[in-house]
Amino acid sequence: MNKEQLVLRLERELRAVQAERSGASHDPALLAARTALKQFQSQRLSETHADLLAAPDTCDAALFFFEELYGSHDLSQRDTDLERIVPTMQRLLPVNALHTITEAIALDALSEQLDSAMARQLGTQVDEASYVAAYRAAGTRVQRERQLELVQALGMSLCDLVRVPLLNTTLKMMRAPARLAGLGDLQQFLERGFNAFKRMKKPQDFVGTIVRREGKALDNCYAGRGMPFDVA
Fold first, then answer.
1. Three-point CA angle 146, 152, 157, nearest 5°
2. Is the residue at 82 inside a domain?
3. What is the domain extent for residue 116?
4. What is the 3-state secondary structure (H, E, C) of 164-223?
5. pLDDT of 84
6. At a CB cut-off of 8 Å and minimum separation 6, what does 64 contact?
7. How many structural domains does the chain have?
8. Does residue 56 carry a pLDDT above 90?
9. Element (DSSP H or E) covering residue 227
10. In a domain, 228, yes or no
11. How far apart are CA 161 and CA 73, in angstroms?
12. Other beta carbons within 10 Å of 29
């Protein structure tokens, strides 16, 4: 895709994310259920990938994935920031960087949709058994496989991004304008992902490990196996 095509996709995915979050914000019961679900997912991921979180080489990248992409904290400000700065990013960032951001929001949009569907079934009481039942009932296997494909695409895009010449300099140049424009959350998101992957010795192996484990967990959930997240 060229920049113009990426921007169109990015704006479409942003609208989808914002629609999901806006709907939840006006439904207190759904919002509470989504928060409980995200907290469960965050804890589950930290247990499944405890070794990645503990290793100095992969700790920062694992935290970036689990907090920025799967975390329970409110990301609506980041999305608002992103929408405002799309024209600036189109002008300043190379197509590789714009592609990475677009993959992140595409993953976010699908994850938000699936989370809302699960939350409507779960309520605020979430344990492993109820989570797996809702996981199977609220989304199709095709959707879950697509979600995992987006995780892989985003991870590999970040692997490619750290090899782009002068991108680190470009991101640093954007700090002051971003801060003045009230876009600090977005700038932090961009730099955090870039720096976390740049510090790893073998970022492709990190992505491969997450995708392999989450693929096994997906298979276990749909097959009804016991201890579905014991995949490390």
1. 125
2. yes
3. 3-223
4. CCCHHHHHHHCHHHHHHCCCHHHHHHHHHHHHHHHHCCCHHHHHHHHHHHHHHHHHHHHH
5. 66
6. 192, 193, 196
7. 1
8. yes
9. none
10. no
11. 26
12. 12
In a domain, 85, yes or no: yes
Distance between CA 36 and CA 105 in Å, rounded? Answer: 22
Question: Can you read off the two tokens belonging to residue 15?
Answer: 């609208």
CA 12 to mean position of chain CA atoms? 17
Which amino acid is located at 173 in the chain? Answer: M
Is the pTM above the cut of 0.85? no
Average pLDDT score over residue span 110-119: 93
The terminus-to-terminus CA distance of the chain in angstroms comes to 35
Q: Specify the range with the lowest mean pLDDT, choosing from 26-40, 98-112, 133-147.
A: 98-112
Domain assignment present for 229? no
CA-CA distance, 86 to 4, in Å (whole number)?
A: 11
Which carries the bigger pLDDT value, residue 157 or residue 116? 116
Distances (CA, A) of 145 to 115, 139, 188, 214: 15, 10, 29, 10
Mean pLDDT of 115-139: 94
